[in-house]
């Protein structure tokens, strides 16, 4: 299949994920707490199960990895699923949650989808292009921290020297917003956010967003400047421009020298 075919398939997955999510959103749904203290709901499990069924039916030889069902990335082609990124938003009735699906080839993300059901928005990205609801999207031209709009999911994801480094960056930028989960990355791809800095992430949190942001013209690396792959250490810098990325990296990369 071509990358265009894969992106069409991601669009189909997005339709399915949206339909299931909206059946449960803002209903009195049971919330469980997993061993890592994060919440999980029936909706998380239902979406992941449906994504697994559809992908396995289309690509029976591909490896499936999901936040709820587990699995390990392998050589060849793997699919990585985060059924509800932002479950805390979901269970509190806030619309900024999403479904993330990535196609990974030879352990690197190639195509990705950010589906945001409650906002009726969907981003799909691949090599050299990205779209929002089928229309091309691009990152901003922001080149310096002093002009940047920064997003991060939660200040409590940082600790020690990382916490102090993030605080210094937050003091330098023009705007800082928390609580955005995957929606912040989508806004970066559409040019409304310029910089995202996060820590403590898992591969299902990031693999889908990498091709979307890179396809929109942005840059995504670890704090040490390495590509994001299955072995990344949980930290990430996503920036609209190389110069902005370099400024942020000067604060964060030094922690890994």
Distance between the termini: 41 Å
According to CATH, the homologous superfamily of the largest domain is Fructose-1,6-Bisphosphatase, subunit A, domain 1
CATH class of the largest domain: Alpha Beta
Uncertain stretches: none
Mind telling me the C-alpha Rg?
Answer: 17 Å
Helix run count:
8
What about the largest sheet? Answer: 7 strands, mixed
The strand order across the widest sheet is 3-4-5-6-7-8-9
Shape: globular
- Work out the strand percent: 25-35%
Whole-number tally of structural domains: 2
Average pLDDT: 93
Beta-strand segment tally: 14
As a percent range, the share of helical residues equals 25-40%
Structural class: alpha+beta
Using the 3D structure, state the CATH architecture of the largest domain: 2-Layer Sandwich
- What string, H for helix and E for strand, traces the elements in order? HEEHEEHEEEEEEHEHEHHEEH
The CATH topology name of the largest domain reads Fructose-1,6-Bisphosphatase, Chain A, domain 1
């Amino acid at each position: 299949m071509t990358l265009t075919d894969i992106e069409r398939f991601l669009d189909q997955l997005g339709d399915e994920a949206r339909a299931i999510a909206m059946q449960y959103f803002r209903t009195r749904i049971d919330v469980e707490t997993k061993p890592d203290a994060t919440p999980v709901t029936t909706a998380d499990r239902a979406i992941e199960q449906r994504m697994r069924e559809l992908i396995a039916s289309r690509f029976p030889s591909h490896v499936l990895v999901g936040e709820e069902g587990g699995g390990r990335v392998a050589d060849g082609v793997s699919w990585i699923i985060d059924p509800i990124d932002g479950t805390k938003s979901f269970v509190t009735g806030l619309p900024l949650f999403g479904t993330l699906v990535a196609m990974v080839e030879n352990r690197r993300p190639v195509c990705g989808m950010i589906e945001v059901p409650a906002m009726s928005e969907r981003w799909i990205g691949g090599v050299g292009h990205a779209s929002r609801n089928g229309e091309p999207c691009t990152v901003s031209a922001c080149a310096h921290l002093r002009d940047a709009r920064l997003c991060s999911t939660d200040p409590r994801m940082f600790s020690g020297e990382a916490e102090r480094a993030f605080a210094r960056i937050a003091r330098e930028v023009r705007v800082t917003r928390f609580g955005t989960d995957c929606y912040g990355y989508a806004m970066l791809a559409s040019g409304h956010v310029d910089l995202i800095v996060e820590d403590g992430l898992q591969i299902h949190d990031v693999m889908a967003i990498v091709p979307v942001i890179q396809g929109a013209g942005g840059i995504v690396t670890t704090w040490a400047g390495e590509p994001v792959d299955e072995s990344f250490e949980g930290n990430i810098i996503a920036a609209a421009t190389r110069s902005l990325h370099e400024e942020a990296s000067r604060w964060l990369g030094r922690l890994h020298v």
